[in-house]
Design a protein that fits this description.
7 helices, mainly alpha, elongated
Length: about 120
Amino acid sequence: MESRREALDKFRSTQQEKLRLRIALQEFLRGQELPEAVREEYECYLRKRRRPAAEELIQAGEVAGLKILKDRKILDLNFLDFYLERARACGQTEVVAWLLGLKYREGFAEKDYEL
């Protein structure tokens, strides 16, 4: 396992977006012991890559990671249907159940159904 410093250096230097995304997710979700500036750097990157970050967590079945992204307002709720379809396609039943609950609680909040 590489150190946090090595992970940060690799995140900053690699040109492979998939690798950058994995490092940012892993490090951001790993911890509160990150220095504030480093946490903000990862968070800023994840905000720019909201949908791919969510897709990565969905494929891995990482409900806890999705919850963290939601709590930090990184998870884009406008894509709930897309996320649900991805989770179904990946066979991630636990993620599907969590997303359905999220859609039920928050997915309809911004719509106006007035007659």
